[in-house]
Amino acid sequence: MKNITILTGAGISADSGLATFRDNDGLWNNHKVEDVATYDGFKSNKKLVYDFYNNLRSEAKNYKPNEAHVALSRLESEYKDGKVTIITQNVDDFHRLAGSKNVIHMHGELNKARCEYCLNVFDVDGDFDESTKCEKCGKDHVLRPHIVWFGEMPLYMALIDEVLNNTDLFVAIGTSGVVYPAAGFIARIKQIGKAKAVELNLKKSETNGLFDKYLEGKAKTTVPAFVDKVLEGKDLF
Ligand code: OAD
Ligand code: ZN
Question: How far apart are CA 139 and CA 141, in angstroms?
């Protein structure tokens, strides 16, 4: 049994056309992070924050999963030696659209709203704002984007630690390695001492030195080739 855990970041969706956070033209473009990605920003200008995520949600509809997402979905369905888990920092739903089932959205999901009153999380297709009612408790003025903002606790951390503990191969794809706790997963993997680790990126991340192997290039090219190698049972190191 050899379990594979894949951490994905904005770089995997870059090949679908979605801008990354820290490369040029990042998503924060024209907006200060404090304004659109913190709870204080939300409290001080709710309309701006609702509009920002409504726009992002409708813009994301123009894009679709690329070869890298599809390859990871193929890995999950064809790999027989253990479990494949994707931990994604991305809030788009490209992994699911590509067919992946075992996906942990640690930074939330763009296509979901969360009720601050009853904590219900539910799918949203179009826009929502303070006038929109919670599907469960029926209140208005209670919904927020189901996005983990700076200073907030990422989701599913206990589950993630369990997954990391049971990982034999850790693969980080298209993430800059600067936003914690995700950036610390590779150190955790090394601490546990069980898994080998591979980084796939366009350029070396901040944590590159901790990986056993590095594959450089665009995700849409490197990921399908890497998945083929894993499925063929070839030696990766
Ligand atoms: P970043 O924007 O920080 O980093 C993008 C990474 O993708 C960089 O390492 C690039 O080298 C790499 N990259 C760019 N294009 C690529 C391509 N075509 N193929 C492969 N790699 C490519 O994005 P993240 O690391 O995902 O948090 O950022 C982490 C978190 O920071 C995000 O989840 C977001 C942000 O704050 C929240 O929204 C909570
Ligand atoms: Zn509610």
Answer: 7
